[in-house]
């Protein structure tokens, strides 16, 4: 049965394919998603180029899977600045539903920390200004992340994507008003902290995602991830919460619709 939503994936050319058949690859990927019961997908921008591509994909698609887009500057690309994404936000688009992914990544530090912090704060401002959801990337930077959210104000619709913290981080995120989006990481053997956080999170604050093409869930770990696998993530989370997967599917669909302002 259909009804699963992939709250965060990357279908842009950079991620999906390097050849001229990328559009056919997108269609095939969405066909597999639909066959797996996934009929709604949010395509995430990570820099100006992939943000433009996300908008183009979602505006031009006539596939049965509903597509929506976010635009943003990933912390790895913070040095490029936010001006291009700000211009896209000002222009607006019928499929534009969020700002991000943006945030802080102190694990890789592909951009200086102060540059990351400035870009993150500016994008929080865009989410406020245009009343869009905020999609946050957070890795090894919780203290600064929470500090910036407090100083800039948490947008009413904010999600920590691919949540990889533990119960304490989850509690702080929830207290600030953020939702948590759970990826295939939750299925990994070494992700007990994530599982402990999930069972302490109210069901109405949870989302499921693939973050494809990255982080394919067990038993597909090591393969290229894709939206079809969000049903695997969702089923695992449902078993973790000891509820029927159908209940989890219905609730997370409603949660993601609320987050991004999608039709219920």
Kindly describe this structure.
Helices cover 43% and strands 17% of the residues. The chain has helices spanning 13-16, 22-35, 48-60, 83-91, 113-130, 142-152, 167-176, 192-198, 230-241, 245-260; strands spanning 4-9, 38-43, 66-71, 96-105, 133-139, 158-160, 178-182, 206-208. It has an eight-stranded parallel beta sheet with strand order 1-2-3-4-5-6-7-8. The model has no long low-confidence stretch (mean pLDDT 96). Helix 6 packs parallel to helix 7 and helix 9 crosses helix 10 (245-260). It is built from ten helices and eight strands. It has one domain (4-260): Metal-dependent hydrolases (TIM Barrel). By secondary structure, it is an alpha/beta fold.
Keywords:
264 residues, alpha/beta, TIM Barrel, eight-stranded parallel β-sheet, 43% helix
């Amino acid at each position: 049965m259909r009804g699963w939503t992939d709250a965060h994936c990357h279908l842009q050319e950079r991620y999906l394919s390097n050849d001229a058949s990328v559009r056919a690859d997108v269609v095939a990927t969405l066909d597999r998603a639909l066959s797996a019961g996934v009929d709604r997908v949010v395509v995430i921008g990570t820099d100006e180029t992939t943000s433009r591509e996300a908008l183009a994909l979602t505006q031009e698609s006539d596939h049965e899977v509903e597509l929506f887009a976010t635009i943003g500057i990933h912390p790895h690309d913070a040095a490029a600045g936010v001006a291009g994404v700000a211009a896209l936000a000002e222009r607006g688009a019928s499929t534009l539903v969020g700002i991000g992914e943006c945030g802080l990544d102190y694990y890789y530090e592909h951009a200086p920390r102060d540059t990351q912090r400035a870009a993150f704060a500016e994008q929080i401002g865009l989410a406020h200004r245009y009343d869009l959801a905020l999609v946050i990337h957070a890795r090894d930077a919780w203290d600064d992340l929470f500090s910036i959210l407090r100083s800039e104000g948490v947008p009413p619709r904010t999600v920590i994507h691919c949540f990889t913290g533990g119960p304490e981080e989850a509690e702080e995120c929830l207290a600030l008003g953020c939702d948590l989006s759970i990826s295939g990481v939750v299925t990994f053997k070494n992700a007990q902290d994530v599982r402990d956080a999930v069972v302490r999170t109210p069901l109405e604050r949870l989302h499921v995602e693939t973050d494809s093409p990255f982080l394919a869930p067990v038993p597909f770990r090591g393969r290229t991830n894709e939206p079809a696998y969000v049903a695997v993530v969702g089923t695992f989370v449902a078993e973790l919460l000891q509820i029927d997967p159908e209940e989890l599917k219905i609730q997370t669909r409603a949660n993601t619709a609320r987050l991004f302002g999608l039709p219920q």
